[in-house]
Each structure stands twice: as C-alpha cells, then as structure tokens.
Design brief:
5-stranded parallel β-sheet; 18 helices; Heat Shock Protein 90; alpha/beta; 17 strands; Rossmann fold; Helix Hairpins; 5-stranded mixed β-sheet
C-alpha cells in the first residue's frame, strides 16, 4: 500500500494511458473518480499521486485539501501535477492550488513517458524516506516509554501527553517539560523539608525562652504580696501562653510522620484551632464551625490531625483568591461502604466555595507530588499527607468537587467512647508522693536550668543541677537522686543518650524528659518510668508531673 500510485485524471483516457506507462515499471496504480475518492485512498496509504490540473478546478479539491491539513507531522505527501502548457501567466486560483498541495512537482503536457516515469520514481523514493523516518521514530518513542515507566508519578502524565501529540518531536518536548516540572517539585519539597527543620529548631529555642518567662511570672505571682505586681505577672503569663500556642502550631508543621495515637475529642481540637485557621484564611474569607455534638472522640495523633485540617484550610484559601466561605462541620456517620471497616465514624467535612477541581483531576489529588498549583506554589504533598494521616488513624479521606461551585474534603476517623480524665486516680497518686525527694536536673540552657532549680526548690525538693550529660551522670553516681529530669536537645549527649546511660547505673530510676520538640519518640527506648514534659509548661504542670512520676 505504501508504494501505490494514485491517479486522478477523470477526463478522457488520461488515467488509462498513465497507468499503462507506469505498469512497465511494475508500479501498482489505482485510478480515482474524483478528489473525494482520492482522499479516501490516501487514508489507506500511498506513495504518490498524479493529478491533472483540470481535475482540481471549480472547487472539486476541498476533500483533498482537508486531508492535507490533517496529515500527521511526519508526512509531506508528494504530488505530481500534470498541467496544461503555460501560454500565459498562471491564474491566482491555479497558484492557490499549487500552494495548498505543498509538496508538488508540476509537469507540463505533452510530456514523454520517460519524464513521467522518472518523476514517479523520485516521488516514491521521497515518500519511502518519510515512511522509514516514521518507523525509526516509533522505535525511539517505545524506548522513551520504557524509561517513563520507571517513574510512576510521571507515567500517567507522559501517557496522556503522548496520546495528545501528533508528532514524535512534540512528544520529546513534552517529556522534557514534564521532567522540568518534577525537578521543580523536588526542589520545592526539599526546601519545605529544610524549612520544617529550621522551624522546629527555632520553635524549640523559643519554647525555652517562653518557659523561663512563664514559670518566673508564676513564681513572682506566688511570692509577691503586691496585688499590682501579681496582676502584671498574670498578664505576662497570659502573653506567654499565647506564644506557646503559636510555637505549638509551628512544631506541628515541622514534626515527623511518627503517629502518636491517643484519644482525641475532635470538637475540642477544632475549637482550639479557630484562631490559627482564621489567621491563615485572612479577612476575605468567612469561616464557620458546626458540631453535631459537644464531644466526638476518636483515636488519632492530635498534632497530625491539626496539620491535616490546617492543610485543607490553606488549600481552600488558595482556591478562593477573591474571597468566599469556609465551613468545617463535624458529624458522626456509619461506614458508607466496604472501603471502610464497619462501625461508627467521626467525619470532619471541610467545604469551600472556591474554583473547584476538574473531573479528570479529582481522582489524582491524593497522589504524592500531584498538584494543580503553578510551579513553586505547592509541593503536591498536602492532600497526600491528609490521606496518610487519616489512614494511619484507621480511617480514610474523600473529596467531592465541582468546577465553579467548590470542594468538600472529608476525613473519616473511627469513633470511640468518651475518655474521662482519671482525676481521682491522679489525685491519689499525688497524695502518696510525700517526703523529702531529691531531683537531678540536667539542662544545658542556663536560664532554663535556673528556672527549673528555683521552681523545684520552691515546691520542696532537694535539687542538684548539671549543665551537660556527662556531669549529670557523675552526679547520679555520687548523689543517688530519686528523680532525673533531663532536657532532650543538648550538645554532646542528648537527653535520650543520658537516659540510656543512666539506666545502666539505675535501672529503676524514674525520668522526666523535658523537650520543646513535637516529634520526640521514646517508644524505641527499652526503658520504663519515663515521662515526657512538653515545653513550655506551667508551674502547676511541673509540680503535678513530678509528683505523679515519683509516686508511680
């Protein structure tokens, strides 16, 4: 089929004469009755076509011209036009026909058979080179596709682009463009990771400062008899509590994905997030909450759940650049289908009135690195993180969206019974922690250490202090304290290193690990009686924790 010669010469015996000449060279010829029939045969495949000039007169060639416009990029089909003798200048219509045919050789009649045969041979050779180029290009595309399959995140994009492109050159350009996008996403992801680490370090140091201010303000309020000074101290304490809330949110942003699944009241958690969500949305977006019940409990990592809701709020804000509404509703519902285990669930619904998501994109929004935002405006990790947090808690994440209307994202979390704080049990344990007790404090920050020592002494404890782990271990050997209180982030030996060495000396020594980081995990430590005290803490928190640990 690729070497066929098509003939469009509908008048007289021209088609038969041309075919007879070309049969001498064993050419496969096919005569076509009109331009429409010629276009149909071109779709089936051919090497060249001979046309008489009169066959294209009076607009008969529209079907042929339409075929030329839709031929693939690799194709430049060759024509041989048998023209009448040019006794005068060719008409504008004739010139237009020649221009639209593109790759055309004009032979004036009468012509001898040798000229015709050579013209056909030359056209067929040129068409053969086009077919060969197409075949070689199709080996190259197959090799590219094999490489693309190595990267799952690119496979669907490259595949979609490949089907849309009409030429191999455009396919190659699409691959280069996609790789540049992925590189930009990776750079952005690395930048966000570095930013998270920096944020965690800054928040830790800030927590130390807040802790010094907070506890000293409480100490002033307790020892001062001046009502005015006590009022000032209370004001300072309230301000540091606000700062502590801010650093808590920063630490949530920077924490590792190490779930700490505990009982969480989702209603209370979201009520506590109102301020940071409102600040993140800005003044142009109206924000509201709606709770089906006053308490709705689940088993989840509270910090990660806060991060998931905050991610959804920020996504909603970006989808409403001109303003709009964000509603967060919490309700309970039975498992809707077999994708979730049977039972009752707490459902967090985050609904915005933004631009919405196209239907062909919705199924991919939870994929890692997939984003509809411009390069540099998003990592493509926000929604995948929401999905992962929900799955870690035994639930799921779902999304419903309509372009121009808005988007709703649901987080399904397994419902659990209400958890009451065992106040009575704690009170009994605290009451049993009586008598003179000796506390060893290991803290590298001098101001924080001084605050801890002063606070513990005011609470009635004997205190020994150390500025580093090695000194603390020596005091442990010499003084035999009842309790070790150690900071997590210290140069040389960190808090966990100190605890590990201390256990070799005193396997039953109770320990309080004080930290301003959100992602400290002691589950890997083969130790007992180790309690984490999060900075910044209040004096009452310190007193209660020490009493409970000593009494345990």
């Amino acid at each position: 089929m690729e070497q066929r010669v098509l003939i469009l010469a509908p008048f007289g015996r021209d088609a038969d004469v041309i075919a007879a000449v070309l049969h001498n060279d064993a050419r496969e010829c096919m005569a076509c009755g009109d331009a429409g029939a010629l276009a149909t045969q071109l779709d089936a495949g051919a090497g060249t076509a001979l046309l008489t000039e009169e066959a294209l007169a009076n607009g008969h060639a529209m079907n042929l011209f339409a075929w030329l416009e839709r031929q693939p990029a690799w194709s430049d089909f060759p024509f041989i036009l048998l023209a009448a003798p040019s006794l005068s200048r060719r008409s504008a219509r004739g010139l237009e026909v020649l221009e639209r045919l593109g790759n055309v050789v004009v032979l004036e009649r009468p012509l001898n058979s040798e000229t015709l045969r050579r013209a056909v041979t030359s056209s067929l050779r040129a068409r053969s080179r086009q077919y060969e180029s197409r075949r070689l290009l199709s080996d190259r595309i197959d090799a590219q596709n094999a490489l693309v399959q190595l990267n799952d995140s690119l496979e669907s994009r490259i595949s979609a682009r490949t089907h849309e492109l009409a030429s191999a050159n455009n396919r190659l350009m699409a691959e280069i463009h996609e790789r540049a996008k992925v590189q930009a996403v990776l750079v952005q992801s690395q930048k966000m990771e570095a930013l998270g680490q920096l944020t965690g370090g800054i928040a830790h140091d800030f927590n130390n400062l807040l802790n010094v201010i907070m506890v000293n303000a409480e100490l002033i309020a307790r020892v001062s008899s001046d009502e005015r000074i006590r009022g000032m101290a209370t004001t300072v304490k309230r301000a540091t509590e606000r700062g502590a809330k801010l650093t808590g949110q920063l630490l949530t942003f920077s924490r590792n994905s190490n779930p700490d699944l505990k009982a969480v009241d989702v209603a209370a958690l979201l009520q506590g997030m109102r301020d940071i969500i409102a600040v993140s949305l800005g003044s142009g977006i109206r924000y509201s909450n709606e709770f089906e019940r006053s308490e709705m409990w689940t088993q989840a990592d509270a910090n990660q759940l806060e991060l998931a809701v905050l991610n959804l709020a920020i996504n909603a804000r970006d989808a409403m650049p001109a303003g709009g509404e964000l509603d967060i509703r919490v309700k309970t519902h039975d498992a809707p289908d077999e994708t979730l285990r049977q039972g009752r669930y707490v459902v967090i619904e985050v609904t915005d009135t933004g631009s919405g998501i196209p239907p062909e994109v919705v199924s991919r929004v939870f994929d890692p690195f997939f984003t509809t935002k411009p390069v540099g405006k998003g990592t493509g990790l926000g929604l995948s993180q929401v999905y992962g947090i929900a799955r870690q808690a035994g639930g799921a994440a779902r999304i419903f969206s309509e372009e121009g209307v808005g988007t709703t994202v649901q987080i399904w979390l397994p419902w659990r019974e209400r958890v009451a704080r065992p106040i009575e049990a704690e009170a009994g344990a605290e009451a049993s922690a009586t008598g003179d007790k000796h506390v060893l404090v290991v803290e590298d920050d001098g101001e924080v250490r001084a605050m801890l020592v002063e606070s513990l002494r005011m609470l009635g404890y004997t205190v020994t202090e150390a500025a580093d782990g090695q000194t603390g271990l020596q005091h442990l050997r010499d003084n035999h304290p009842d309790l070790l209180m150690v900071d997590f982030a210290m140069p040389g030996m960190n808090g966990i290193d100190v605890i590990s060495e201390a256990r070799k000396l005193r396997a039953d020594l109770p320990v309080i690990l004080a930290t301003g980081y959100a992602d400290v995990d002691i589950t890997g430590l083969a130790v007992k009686r180790c309690t984490i005290l999060r900075k910044p803490f209040q004096l009452d928190d310190l007193a209660r924790t020490v009493r409970l640990v000593l009494a345990a």
